[in-house]
Amino acid sequence: MLVTDGGTSTPVLLIRHLCIAQQPARDTGTKIMFLKSLSRQRRSDRFSQHPYNNNQTPRTSVSAPDTTQHFGQTQTAILSALDILKRPYRPTPWLFNAHAQLIFLGLQKQRGTMRYDHTEQLRTSDGGTVGLFWMGYQQPATTPTIVVLHTITGTPQSMHGLIADLQQQTGWRVVLCLRRGHADLALTAPTINLLGSTADLQQQLDVIQQRFPDSALYAVGSSAGSGLLVRYLGEAAEHSTFTAAFAYCPGYNTDEAFGRSHPFYSRLMAKKLVQKFITRHVAQLSQLSTLTALQNSKDLAEFQANSYELAGYSSYAAYSAASNPMHVFERIQTPLMVLNAEDDPICHIDNRRPYLKLMQQMPNVSLVTTARGSHCAHYEGWRATSWATRLMAEYFLAVHRDLITA
Length: 406
Hints:
The chain has helices at about 10-20, 30-40, 75-80, 100-110, 160-170, 200-210, 225-235, 265-280, 290-295, 300-305, 315-325, 355-360, 385-405, and strands at about 65-70, 120-125, 130-135, 145-150, 175-180, 215-220, 240-250, 335-340, 365-370, 380, 385. The chain is an alpha/beta fold. The protein has one domain: 3-Layer(aba) Sandwich (Rossmann fold). It has a 9-stranded mixed sheet with strand order 1-9-8-7-6-4-5-3-2, sandwiched between helices. A two-stranded antiparallel sheet has the order 10-11. Strand 4, helix 5 (about 160-170) and strand 5 form a beta-alpha-beta unit. Helix 5 packs across helix 13. The two termini are about 35 Å apart. Mean pLDDT is about 85; it is low at about 1-65.
């Protein structure tokens, strides 16, 4: 439930670190040979020493990666008919490894102009400020709505590509729930929960339902947003407002997941968290006894360990009890699809191991795992389009068709 958001400096640093060649090959055949050669060379660099490249996780070739599935009993009939799951996911050939996919993801998040057609800021019960960013706001009142919960430092700009893809592929209304302290929202109450607040989310959902009471709600949680989504689904149990949900590249147990992130990305993201949440709002956070520790955090695990007071809790134990999604996972009643990649350097696939048997026993939970795909990337084809958003769209459309015909 962590993420690299592709900030301005991230792709440049990664490109320099990986020493990616900047001159294109002269022809397609030469280019393919060049990429294969470079991919083999990169296996020996220091990135390859991360646990996701060792014998714990099987590696497959770029040309024929595995896609494994487990369908919950209540979803088998719907999901077995999905065309996208009848064929394996095949990554973009020129994005030859997890790091290349992440670089491209970061660059994509900086491209294009946002096309939100309605935005609003909401004041929470404790005086905080959150936002709603809509695409397809003028759709008919009965059109389904997809609620998107963003990444750890997500913004309307960084999430725009995923939201635009979902809107285009479903024809539905899509709304981004922006958390407090993110993007250009003023910090009007001195708390920021790195993992998201279900109380804030509930107030956002209340407004969404007030705007469109006849619209069925679906949800996508991306990286850290998947943690907030799962926490909400578990707390709400049978009272969830969502018809179905999709957790994309979750990290599972937030007490442990941050410590398993690749060291390079962990350091990079810790620096980004300090800049975006601590340095920017330092005047409002000056009363925190953990302020200096947060400012000096060297990696994600260190920042997470010291963020309990920032989130409004007196101890880490209280923070974990109120925020860790796996504490309430078993209570989820909403149909849920979970997508992970085995080569994810941010949310390591080992995070899932303690919960795999539990999830396979839950009739409403379905798992899709790809050997490649990196973290919240899953680009496919030579044009590098998102396979993951296609899966999200097909899943929701299938569930909705079943709902209508039931």
